[in-house]
Amino acid sequence: MNVPLPGAESEPAAPPLSRYEIPLASLAGSAAFFAAFLLPLVGVIGVPLAAVPLVRLAHRHGLPAAFAACGILVGLLLGLGWAGGGLGAGVGLALAALAVTALPIASVGFLRAGVDPSRCYVGLCLAGGALLAACFAASVNAPGMSLSAEVGASFDRIIPTAVDSYARSGADAESVARMRQTLEAAREFAKGCLWGIFGALWVVGGAVAFYLGALMARPGPTADAARFETLRVPATGAAVFVAAGAAFGLLPGEGRRLAANLLLPLSALYFVAGLSIICHFFRRWFRVRILRVGLYTLASYFPINLGVALLGLFDWYVDFRRRGEGVRESS
Residue 5 has what pLDDT? Predict the structure, then answer.
């Protein structure tokens, strides 16, 4: 759905492109992306942050500048990967960086064309999901050990060491057994739902790239339009979620596993949508930003995150923002 961007006529033009903006955006994105491999603990944060300076550039100076920065970033990572692990590693790193940065930039292109911001973000999620599905299909018949098998093998190496270390720390036998069961369950979950986990990470990371990049680009017509608190998932998403849930409950074997891999990114999408509803009200109720950040962090913990996801799932029917405004006006 095409919508006029608010303030498109009255908003002042963006400042001229500085000679340093494209290389600085490329260097910032490269540093964030490469930090994910140097420091794996920050990988989930670092990878989506790599696209933020390029998305900002796309909002403020258009797609040609953003894609030029993307090309420099990909070239830098190709060289770093080649130097560190050979040509194959460099090409793999460059392709991953291209997907992580080019798709969010393209979503800004649709936004600049007048497409609804929520649909641009959902389209970004779908594009990433299609890319992951293609990677999964290609990996099925690929020679050698599959990625899921490699993850399982990594768990097999880690579990005995972790359990032995826990036992030597003085834990009783029952606690050690529970820890082993937990790690083995995590191994089976990671092996069976690895691509669904990647999809969920893409959905959350896409929200970071799309909305944080817009935030950093304000003021500007497209950046002002892409506000996180206005995110709405189309109603068809709820139907897909219900169908995937039914398939997970009714189908055996491989069908159940595929449904689980679809449910994970959908659950992440509705968690992000629920968080946007909370953001809508928190911005009105709590003026202190650090307090809002703490409450958002609290909302990500289990089981609160389940409630947040349900909030996003039922918003297409209830429209919590409109009802909340109605309650406020009546009071």
Answer: 53
- Write out the two tokens for 35: 């930090």
Q: Which helix (H) or strand (E) holds 271?
A: helix 253-285
What's this model's pTM, rounded to 2 decimal places?
0.83
Residue ranges of alpha helices (H) inside the chain are: 21-38, 43-49, 52-61, 63-85, 87-112, 117-140, 147-168, 173-192, 194-207, 213-217, 221-225, 236-250, 253-285, 289-299, 304-313, 315-318, 320-330
CA angle 273, 278, 283 (to 5 degrees): 125
- How far CA 203 is from CA of 73, 97, 170, 264, 289, in Å, comes to 22, 16, 41, 10, 24
Listed by start position, the domains of the chain span: 1-143+209-226, 229-331
Q: Which residues pair with 2 in a beta bridge?
A: 115
Residue of 166 and 262 predicted with greater confidence: 262
